[in-house]
# Entry
Amino acid sequence: MLLGCGGSGDAATEDPGSLNGDVQVHGALRAMFHEGQIGTQVTLDTLLPDPHLYAVGALSDLSGEITIVGGETYLSYPEGDQARTEAVSQPDAGASLLVSARVTAWTSVTTKHPIPFETLDEAIGELAAQAGMDLDRRIPFLLEGEFEDLRWHVVDGTRLPEGETTHVDHLAASVQTALDRATATLIGFYSTGDQGVFTHMGSTTHIHCILEEPLATGHVDHVVIPAGTTIKFPAGAGESGTESSGAGTE
# Structure
């Protein structure tokens, strides 16, 4: 169920000077929390259409969530105590925060053991290193399959208090959903140097989920990754673009 996973095998068509999986960031969490900068930082139509685009973020004025996988765009909006998700073919919405990357080819590693949420950041770093990633880079990653204890939220900016806010405030002002088991696609970004930019303090990942039935997307607050799950990272220079399996975390 890899939603919109374009790009495998297409690296040869790209500019040889470009780096597969380069990450761009528009906006910053610290500016949103401490300075109230929740206006439009970028509009999606400046990046799309692009079948190789992967992104996570928040809609302008924190009116919902943005998830893009292989150029396919999913926007979720809070509606009372529920959330509504749309698959949008020609998105022109604005984003107050957007983390994006063009990925034209993937490589993969497989987990040997379940990964609890409490050690997910560390495990993603270890798996990225096994895949040959430079951990000093911002790194996109992609998972699909059955996940356990999946929890996500859709932010509702209309419910935020005035003035400075915190991550706790944002969770309180959101529609939250939890499932014991779920078939989903997860798109995330790993970075050791972007706390307060696109990862929360004390974290090195920012992850969104997409579920097909019923259609839903949002910011992941908790998930358990089962053993045997394949995690994909941008293929390095010289890769053919085909997926390769490797050893997972111990």
